Amino acid sequence: MSFIRTEDRDGVRVITLDNPPVNSLSFALSGELVPIVEAADKDDSVKAVVFVGANGIFSAGADVNDFSTEPTPETRTIRDVIATVERSNKIFVAAIQKNALGGGLELSLACDYRVATADTKVGLPEIKLGLLPGAGGTQRLPRLIGAQDALDMMLKGKNVKAADAKEKGILDEVVDSADALLDAALALALRQAKGDTGGGKRRISRRKVELGKGITAQAAPFIVSQAHKMVPAEDAGGFAAHKLIDAVEAAFELPFDFGIAREARLFEELARSAPSFALRHVFFAERELAKIPGLGDAKPHDIKRAGVIGAGTMGTGIAITFAQAGIPVAVIDSNADAVEKARQTVFGMFMYQVQKGRMTQEEAWKLGQSIQFTDDYNELADADVVIEAVFESMDVKKQVFAKLDAIVKPEGILASNTSTLDIDEMASVTKRPDKFVGLHFFVPANIMPLLEIVRGKDTSAQTLATAFKLGKALRKTAVLSTNAFGFIGNRMVFDYAKAAGALAEEGISPMRIDRVAKKFGFPMGPFAMGDLSGIDVAWHIAKARPDVAKGRTDVIDRLVEMKRLGQKTMAGYFKYDKSVGKGREPIADPEIEALFAEEAKKHGVAPREVSDEEILQRLVFALINRGAYLLEEGVALRPGDIDIVYIFGYGFPPHHGGPMWYADEVGVKHVYDKVVEFGWEPAPLLKKIAEANGTFAALKQGELVNA
Ligand code: 3HC
C-alpha cells in the first residue's frame, strides 16, 4: 500500500501525504517517505519541495498505535524523515490544511516555510498522551516563538488557530481557502528557490533559542524552574510535563543535534511509561464510544430545535448547552421564581464569557435570545428533541411525557435526564417508545463533559444514532448505557461511597479517606463529593432501592435527621465556613467521626489500623468490581466505556486510565484476591479474568454480554 504521491509542478516536487483518515505519520508511511525525500534532494531538476496532505488535512502527527509496537532496525520514523529534510539544501514548504498536530507540525517546522488555510489549527498535543513532542518540537518551537510561549503551548497541548499562529511566527502565510493553498505554497517555494526575496533556506535549527519578549538569556534557569513548579508532581499526573521541561532545558543548554538526541531519549522513556499507556488507552477509548454494534446504517435526524422541561439547575444548564451549540431551545416552566432565577443564571453565564473575552456582547445577546422561557407546552410542537429535567419522581415524569407525546410532532425524540429512574416505564406512557431515550447530563450540564445515553428496550437505532449526533453537536463525550438502575456512573459511585462509609465506621476519619483519594488523583474525596451532590440525594436513592443501598452506612440517615445535607446547608460529612475557601473547603468535624463510631458500635464493627494503601484499594477496587458486574450484565459495552464515564464524570485521574484500565495495571488477579479478602461478593467476570490471569483490555467488544 502506498501512502505517498508525488508530482512535479514547475520544478517543484509536490509530495502528498495520503494515509486516511488523518494522514498519521506511521512507521510505514515514514519508511516510504524517507527515500522519496532523499530522491528529491538529489534530483537537480527539483528546485524545491512542497509537502501537502490528502483527505482534507495536513497531518495529525505520528501514529499513536506505533508507540506500542517494538521498532526493528529497519523501522523508519517521522524523525528519520525530518533528519533527511534537515540535511537537504533544497527549499521545503509545508502546505497545511485543517490540522498540523504533533509530528505533523514537527515535520512542517523542519521545513523552511509554512503556509496554511485560515481554518487551520496547529499544535503539539503530545502531553495529552503522556508524551512530549519527540520529533524536534521541543527544540525547534522554542527557537521559533520563544521558550515561554513554546512551553505554554506544549504543556497545555493547546491548538493555535491560523491567525494566531501567524502572529506568533509559526506560520508564514495564511490563505482563505483550500483551493488557494497549493498555488500559494508553490509560488512561495519558487520565489525562495530563486532567492528573489532574499529569504531562501531558513532552518530553525540554526537559530538561537528565544526566551520571550524582553527576557534576557540569564532568565533561562528561572523559566525552567518556574515551569517545573507550575505542573503537577511526577507521580500526580505530571510525569510527562517534567520530562518535557527537561527537553526544553536541553534546547537552552545544548547544541541543536545534542538537544534532539536528548529529546528522543526522553520521548522513548515516556512512550514506555505507565501514564502514557493509560492516556493512549483513553484517547482510543474515547473514539470507540460511538461505535455501537447494530447501529449500522441508521441515519440520524437533524436537531434544529430543542425543548427542555424544567428551569431548575439541570434544565438551565442543558438549555445553555443547546444555545452554545447554536440550537434554539424553549424551556418550559410555570414557576415564575424558578424562571427568574434561570434567566439570571443564563445572563450571568454569558456575561462571564464576555468578561473573559470569549465572546462579544452581541454574540452573548444572540445566544441569550436563543433560549426562550415559557409555560406553554405548545411551543414544543415543532421540537426535534425535548429533554425532561423535572423533579426525580416517576409520577411527575410520566405526566410530563404523556403531555409531550400529545403535543410534540410524531418524529420528535423524547428524552429524560433521570439519573436513576426506569426510562422504559416513562416511555410506556407514550406512543413512541422507539423515539424515547435517556440523556443523562451531569451538574453543571453546561460545563461537565459527560453524557450518558440510555437505551431503552424499544429505543430505535435511528433514535440512538440521533442521540450520539446530538452529543457531538453539544460537544459532550457520550457513552451508551442500558436502562439499569444508576446506569454506569451512579451505579458505580454507590459502591464507592459504601466502601468509604465502611472505612469511616472502622475508625478512619473522613478527612483521611478523602486525602488518600486526592493523593491518587481524584479532584475531591468521596465524602466531599457526597457533600457536594447532597446527602439527601443519597438518602432518597437508598429509600427507593434498599437492595442497592444494602451495606451503606446509617450515618446518612442521621445526617438527614440533623439537616446536615452537605455543602448547601454548610454541613454534611464536613463543616463549611464562608470564610474558608468560599464555603467550599471541607473542615473536619469530630462530631461526625463520633457519629461513625456510634454506628460502628451498633453494628459490632471494631476500630482498626488501616494503611493508606488499603484505603485506596477499598475505594478503587469497589469501582472495579462493580464495573465488572456492569460489563457482564451488558449495561456498559466495553471496559473503555466505563473508564471514560469515570474519568469524564467523576474525576478519575486520566493518567491511571480509568478504573478498568487501572485493574489491568495492578493486575486483575490482585484485585480479585483483595475483593475476596474484603469480604465482598466478587463479580463472576472479575473471577473469570483473574483465574485466566487475563486483562480487561483483552476482552473484545460484545463478547462479554451475557457471558
Ligand atoms: N494516530 C493514530 N490514529 C489517529 C491519530 C493519530 N495521531 N489521530 C487520529 N487518529 C484516528 C482516530 O483514532 C480515529 O480512528 P477511528 O476512525 O478508527 O476511530 C480517526 O483517526 C479519526 O479521528 P477523530 O475521530 O479524532 O477525528 P476528528 O475529525 O474528530 O479529529 C483530529 C481529528 C483533530 C486530528 C484528532 O483525531 C486528533 O486530535 N488526533 C490526535 C492528534 C495528536 O495527538 N497528535 C500527536 C500524536 S503523537 C506524535 O505526533 C508524537 C511525535 O511528537 C513524535
How does this model look, in words?
This protein is of the alpha/beta class. It folds into 3 domains: 4-271, 2-enoyl-CoA Hydratase, Chain A, domain 1 (Alpha-Beta Complex); 306-483, Rossmann fold (3-Layer(aba) Sandwich), CATH 3.40.50; 505-609, N-(1-d-carboxylethyl)-l-norvaline Dehydrogenase, domain 2, CATH 1.10.1040.50. Helix content is 48%, strand content 11%. It has 29 helices and 17 strands. Strands 12-11-10-13-14-15-16-17 form an 8-stranded mixed beta sheet, sandwiched between helices. A 6-stranded mixed beta sheet has the order 1-2-3-4-6-9, with helices on both faces. The longest helix is centred in the last third of the chain and has 21 residues, at 612-632. The chain is globular and about 85 Å long. The protein starts with a strand and ends in a 16-residue tail after the last helix. The mean pLDDT is 94. The chain binds 3-hydroxybutanoyl-coenzyme A. 3-hydroxybutanoyl-coenzyme A (3HC) binds at residues 21-22, 24, 60-65, 78, 99, 101-103, 106, 125-126, 129, 131, 133-135, 137, 287. 3-hydroxybutanoyl-coenzyme A is lined by residues 21-22, 24, 60-65, 78, 99, 101-103, 106, 125-126, 129, 131, 133-135, 137, 287.
Distance between the termini: 39 Å
Identify every distinct bound molecule in the structure, by name, code or SMILES.
3-hydroxybutanoyl-coenzyme A
Say which CATH homologous superfamily of the largest domain is assigned: 2-enoyl-CoA Hydratase, Chain A, domain 1
Tally of separate domains:
3
The poorly predicted ranges are none
Give me the CATH architecture of the largest domain, please: Alpha-Beta Complex
Number of strands: 17
